[in-house]
Specification:
mainly alpha; globular
Amino acid sequence: ICNFAMITGKIFMLMEEEKMGFELQSFLTSVIPTGFDLNQKMSMPSLIFVGLNLLITIAIPVVFFIYLRKHAKLDLKGILVGGLVYIFMNQIMLNLVGILILMIPGVQAYMQANMFVSQSISVILSVAMEFLAILLGMMWMRRRQLTFNDCVMFLLGYSCIIILTETIAQSLAMLINCIMINTQGLTAIFAQIPDTDVDMAVQAYQSVLSAHPVEFLIDGINCLVLFLIRICCCILIYTSLVRKSGKQNLWIALLILILYNVPIALYGVQIVPSRVAVEIAFVVVTAVAMYYTYTVLKNELADDWKDFLSGKNKQKKNNQPKKMPKIVMPKD
């Protein structure tokens, strides 16, 4: 399904170069593997779930933004810091460190031969970059007085930028491709794909056409789960920075990130062969993390949480006293 979205751009770039009639049939017969049915269509339940997946990914940032407008003072600086921190740590630094590791002599061959080691390194890098991104971002904002409103604005920028820039685009590409299968047909679609990409395209389309309709909701559900995990981690790390009694929450946030990423690694090495088991693990970890975070909000951040729910955080920002102008006394 991941490869399915990768070929979308190439299809759109080659839309004008169509081959029809006998020439097209000869071309397809020579490159399409035998046994692959070009008359296959997407089922209606699959199309519905693909559409629901897109709606979920769009709804997450929209609903979160609308909710925050009622309870918090929108601060562009905090949102910008969160977005830039995510791009730098989870996009630039994560890829850079991965490239540097693979440049070590013998490491790439060893990782290819030992999938468990490869998955372990992937988990360590993902957890480290996610944890350091939130921690360093919060510490950067703590240069001035760090408030709960600052934490929420950082969270808005940090969590929503990936959804707005990548996840929604991928979900939209999936929906467009599924509609093209039913409207244009696989024959016309494969005519627009270069010979060198046909094998990958066949595998991608076959995996999509044979997938259970519910599988198309997985990306949307995982997007929501990761969003909730980041909410928990941001609040816990914020608590560790502003409350002396909450220092342990820093390590609990790290533990939550580890527990979230471990099922992915176990699935990658086939220790846990069922995707359903991975999704159940995601839900369990998220539910436990949310429950613990809620207890922290009630006990250690009770005043901040009460002010946030009542909208006082927004009022405090709006009603901050203006600085008095400096009075210069005339010299005698």
